[in-house]
């Protein structure tokens, strides 16, 4: 028997990064955000998602779910925005993490909510419901977004006013960003809507688009213009389906990484 035959087989590389939790912020009883240390070799495009999870209990397999990266591609830490589900296989445990804990993260980011999947335009509409805001936190902090589009609209629809996580960020704090603060002040508009409480812009975003209120509120001509407007969609399956159909009626075509076009959605979260 040779020495080679006696040598142990090389350890199989883990498909996950084990990352330290740097901070956790609980917005409400159902929403929280957290940041983790970014691996030195981890690269992604603003708007992409990655698998996030925790080791399985009692030696079981790790439990992972797709999460949009809420940090821009240049950030030194990675931020995530999550719901809390009391009996959820992952979030029932993930919501209890604290600084110093370890979470798992896949090594291959991917996704279609990226500028590469859109053709050129003048206005960019980032439409999200609930935690579907996460990729817009990334895209809206990327300098390329402001060099490619003259104006950027971040649209966030939630059930209750308290669910408007990052409202202060988009209305004030982003203006102080050392990299894109001046551009955001001049080119970014934040447009929240609330469906279950009184609010200055009430209702579902798709209803406000259909009624024309959305365009009137923003001082825009009614309707989306395929020659000028580009749209990204993320959030509930119902919103994405309805909004996608609406955009098609205005003549916008769905794009992808392989074939950039007028609007994109993230199918990883849709079924």
TrEMBL record:
The species is Brevundimonas aurantiaca
Q: Which PROSITE patterns match?
A: FAD_FR
UniProt-listed Enzyme Commission number(s): 1.18.1.2
Q: What EC class does the entry list?
A: oxidoreductase
Reaction(s) catalysed by this chain's protein: 2 reduced [2Fe-2S]-[ferredoxin] + NADP(+) + H(+) = 2 oxidized [2Fe-2S]-[ferredoxin] + NADPH
Q: Which GO molecular function, any one, fits this protein according to its record?
A: nucleotide binding
List the keywords (alphabetical).
Answer: FAD, Flavoprotein, NADP, Nucleotide-binding, Oxidoreductase
Family affiliation: Belongs to the ferredoxin--NADP reductase type 1 family.
Q: Which cofactor does it need?
A: FAD
Domain called FAD-binding FR-type: residue spans: 14-116
Gene Ontology BP annotations: cellular response to oxidative stress; heme catabolic process
Name it: ferredoxin--NADP(+) reductase
């Amino acid at each position: 028997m040779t020495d080679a035959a006696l040598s142990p087989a090389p350890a199989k590389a883990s498909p996950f990064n084990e990352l330290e939790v740097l901070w956790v912020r609980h917005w409400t009883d159902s929403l929280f955000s957290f940041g983790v240390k970014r691996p030195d070799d981890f690269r992604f495009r603003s708007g992409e998602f990655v698998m996030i999870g925790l080791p399985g209990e009692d030696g079981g397999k790790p439990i992972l779910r797709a999460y949009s990266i809420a940090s821009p591609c240049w950030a030194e830490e990675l931020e995530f925005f999550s719901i809390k589900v009391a009996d959820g296989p992952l979030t029932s445990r993930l919501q209890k993490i604290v600084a110093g804990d370890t979470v798992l993260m896949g090594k291959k980011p991917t996704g279609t909510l990226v500028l590469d999947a859109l053709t050129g335009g003048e206005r960019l509409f980032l439409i999200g419901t609930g935690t579907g805001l996460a990729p817009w936190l990334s895209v809206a902090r990327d300098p390329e977004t402001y060099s490619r589009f003259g104006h950027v609209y971040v649209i966030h629809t939630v059930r209750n006013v308290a669910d408007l996580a990052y409202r202060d960020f988009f209305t004030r704090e982003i203006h102080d960003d050392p990299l894109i603060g001046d551009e955001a002040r001049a080119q970014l508009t934040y447009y929240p809507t609330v469906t279950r409480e009184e609010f200055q812009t009430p209702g579902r975003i798709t209803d406000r688009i259909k009624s024309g209120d959305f365009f009137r509120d923003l001082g825009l001509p009614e309707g989306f213009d395929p020659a000028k407007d580009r749209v990204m969609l993320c959030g509930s399956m119902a919103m994405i389906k309805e909004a996608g159909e609406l955009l098609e009626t205005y003549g916008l075509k769905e794009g992808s990484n392989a074939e950039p076009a007028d609007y994109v959605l993230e199918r990883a979260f849709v079924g």
